[in-house]
Design goal:
Length: about 260
């Protein structure tokens, strides 16, 4: 009985988590508790039917997520890694659903594979958030933009871009390892939504990508100085961890910091 309840909990918990990221403005309320009501089905139907219902319900949640992603199609070039991860998780879910329907394994083997697949998906998601802690914030802002009208109608975009470049290049704002969209927006007199839309529409990239590029450019200059270690350069440029520094540097330049330093000697 307990594992049947857990099966029905997985999809709603995924929905609650995804909604807090994709639509943070819409607060969870008592109506959202209804997403847990399918648990009552385990008292109505036998075990085999319950298993099928679990994956039908899970498929509905995946369909909801795909509709959200469809609305973000204009931003897909800015979130290649995130879209790839989403497709990977979706592929895992699809494979598990097929196995649930055709039942090629015993229940013991199936649930072992099911548990492993959930673990892998959770690990991949956690890894992405660890490497790019600002990604949830960026995605929530972009989702908001995709569903709303422009917030830049009365804004001098060129002037604000100049202000942004000034606080980044002259004040070295990017060197703050905990810098986020909200802090940067306040520095240039914009709301987070306005700044995100400004960078997306005028520069063709997300805020997180823009920030990584600024930090990598700074690191490239510092790498020309032989008296600084690669790790200290990463921290000096605003990266909070070595892994974040290496992944961002390779993403943008196509090589590692150490190899880049060798090419400029």
């Amino acid at each position: 009985m307990a594992y049947q309840v857990l099966l029905f909990i997985v999809a709603p918990v995924f929905y609650y988590y995804a909604k807090t990221i994709l639509k943070p403005v819409e607060k969870l309320n008592l109506i959202n508790i209804l997403h847990l009501s399918p648990i009552l089905l385990i008292f109505v139907f036998d075990r085999n039917i319950v298993f099928s219902l679990v994956f039908v319900i899970g498929g509905c949640y995946l369909l909801w997520l795909l509709v959200i992603v469809f609305h973000l199609r204009a931003y897909r070039e800015q979130f290649k890694t995130e879209v790839a991860l989403l497709l990977f998780v979706f592929l895992i879910a699809a494979i598990v659903a097929v196995f649930a329907i055709i039942k090629p394994f015993t229940q013991e083997v199936f649930f072992s594979l099911y548990s492993i697949s959930i673990g892998v998906a959770f690990l991949m998601t956690s890894l992405l958030i660890h490497l790019s802690p600002e990604i949830t914030e960026s995605i929530s802002i972009v989702v908001s933009e995709a569903y709303n009208k422009s917030t830049l109608n009365n804004i001098d975009c060129d002037e604000k871009l100049e202000q942004l470049e000034s606080v980044m290049d002259k004040q070295k704002l990017f060197q703050q390892s905990n810098l986020d969209l909200f802090t940067t927006a306040s520095e240039v007199g914009l709301s987070p939504h306005q700044l995100s839309e400004l960078i997306n529409t005028k520069l063709g990239k997300s805020f997180s990508r823009y920030l990584r590029e600024k930090r990598v450019i700074s690191a490239q200059e510092l790498l020309k100085q032989n008296d600084l270690s690669v790790l200290s350069i990463g921290f000096e440029s605003g990266f909070s961890t070595q892994s974040n520094f290496y992944s961002a540097f390779k993403e943008i330049t196509g090589t590692t910091p150490a190899k880049y330093r060798k090419t400029i000697k």
